[in-house]
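User: I'm writing a short report section on ligand binding and want a predicted complex to refer to. Could you take this sequence and S-adenosyl-L-homocysteine and write out the structure as tokens? A short remark afterwards would be nice.
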Amino acid sequence: MINGADIPGMMPEELSDLVANEGFPAYRGVQLFEWMHRKGVFDPGRMTSLPADLKARLAAGGPLLPLTVGRVLASSDGTRKLEMRLADGAVVETVLIPEGRKLTQCISTQVGCSIGCIFCRSGAFGFSRNLTAAEILAQVFAARDAWRDGEELTNVVFMGIGEPLHNYENTLRAWRLLTCDKGLDLSLRRVTISTAGVVSGIDRLGRDTQGQAALAVSLHGADEAVRQRLVPHLKHTVRDIVEALGRYPLPPRRRFTIEYVLVGGVNDSDADARQLVRVLSGLRVKVNLLPLNPHDRSDLQPPLPERVERFRRVLVDKGMSVFLRRRRGDDISAACGQLLGEQ
Ligand code: SAH
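Assistant: Sure. The structure tokens for the complex follow:
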């Protein structure tokens, strides 16, 4: 039996097995994969190269996309936030971020999140469930309609709602699908998995992808007590995380991204910056500084602009590469930490 909702989460060879079980030649599975991943077609009736009886069999399995697009909000800076409604009524969000010739999509991996970083709105409502691999991929497929003239997806970041490494199998599968050469074929450097620091997941990802998965780690503190305050429910220490990165089989000329949300008066002093330099010494990293985006569920304050500049200076003077993440989509609550899944 074909279940339509699983199909976007299947690799070409798995689709070949599926159609072979239904009595069709294996290459029909690859054609089906290409219709979805290359051409963005999910209506079996429009898959003109497939035989009529396979199209009918697919149509009988139910929709090939396990979600529908709800509200779409467009920011004045070009960012678009799309609400995705899942079959069980749950809602996640995904964000399209254009920048020059690049189009980056930020995707969610869970409904809610159990990490509970104190500055992030996405976790403020608790955790409901993992997304399936098909649901993760379907966010990319369903967002095609929101691409503007001349836009084409170049980058994907697993930085939406949820902790990707708490949904390990489906995240890995989605990563393989996005980078599959028969499909979207995104470059390995342009698909980034972001984790709050789940050590066992970092180790697995290193092994399963031979270090090819681009990894971002949300550290937010070099001092154990500061990190503990900001990310209270994750047991791994800064030291555990840094050691896990040291074991990760990072290919030559690649670097980790370290994300650091700057919270006014909490982790934005010169001493914090110097400690961050010390903790990261010996690792190939670039640091992404994210000045806190405020939201209605938290009293934490953004850093003063001169603090951001000083913090950046300390890192740069020590020879680190540092990027200041510009806030995008703030007017539609699409910036980092503002995605909600509000009921
Ligand atoms: N759970 C993963 C994936 C989410 S990525 C992770 O923690 O990495 C989302 C990024 O936005 C993380 O680096 C997160 O720390 C950051 N973020 C969350 N809330 C924010 C806020 N209010 N302002 C700025 N950045 C925030």
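A remark for your report: The first strand starts at residue 67 and ends at 74. The domain at 4-60 is CATH 1.10.150.530 (DNA polymerase; domain 1).
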